[in-house]
Amino acid sequence: MSLDGKVAIVTGSGRGLGLAYAQELARRGASVVVNDVDAQTAADAVAAIQAIGGQAVAVVAPVGPTETAKQLVSAAVESFGRLDILVTNAGVLRDTVLWKMSDDDFDTVINVHLRGTFTTVREAVLHMRAAGEGGRIICIGSPTGQRGNFGQTNYAAAKAGIVGMVRTWALELKRAGITANTVVPVAATAMTATVPYFAAAMQAEAKGEPMPAFFRHDLGFGTADDVAGLIAFLGSDAAAAVTGQVIGVGGDRLQVWTHPEAALTAYHEGGWSYDALVEAWPTQFAGALQSVGERFPELPEEFKTAAS
């Protein structure tokens, strides 16, 4: 099933994961609006898509402002006549622990990731609903938004917020035939390149060699191309019944994340007073407490040298 005749916008698609998404959509037949804050990077992305026989135009602007969202939708409609798929991928990082995080660190990440997703999806949906032909909204999440991560208060808040918005949009857009899903990629990026744990995998990637099976299979960690297939699938007619989901992908692994559910429900006649909680907590509730943060298995000995 191809994407022939479809038109997609991919924010933050000048390089890395976003470029991989844009190229895969183009390979499947979609015309693509790419986006980056750097004009040369955006031009290079357009050229890379054209080199594989695809069609693309660029919008050079920062994601976040409503004006950028309008530019992106206008570029799709004016250049290719329609809009069918939106992938919100643009993002920045300002990592530091809570007590060192400035207002600007927080606001910058929230503005690009969370507000940028909101403004771009809102503008796309305005067009899609008016056109009456349905559509596909694909928002990029993160394991940090699902589990938390040390030093990423701003990023965790933004990515968790995106998931909350997507679940709401799945309800609101159902009648219009527009699906909304979150993709959680686990792949080699500029960020993972700085993490010693992934050093052996990153070295293999840099050399053009296959990543070791431990990373691809056990960790579900792979390349940008390993994620791109899911993006194209969710943008296709084959995924018309998939909406409101959080789907993780990386390496050889694909995961459908659960929606939050109560881990334990208990009742106490008259309500849960302080004294009742002190008495009941150790036996009734302590065993149901949930873990936080990502959990990685110990590196096999053969990869520890690379990590040191």
UniProtKB/TrEMBL annotation:
GO molecular function, one term: oxidoreductase activity
Keywords of this entry: Oxidoreductase
SMART domains reported in the protein's UniProt record: PKS_KR
Domain named Ketoreductase: residues: 6-194
PROSITE patterns: ADH_SHORT
Signal peptide, first to last residue: none
Coiled-coil zones: none
SUPFAM superfamilies: NAD(P)-binding Rossmann-fold domains (SSF51735)
Gene3D superfamilies: NAD(P)-binding Rossmann-like Domain
Pfam family of the protein (one): adh_short
Entry's family note: Belongs to the short-chain dehydrogenases/reductases (SDR) family.
Name of this protein: Dehydrogenase
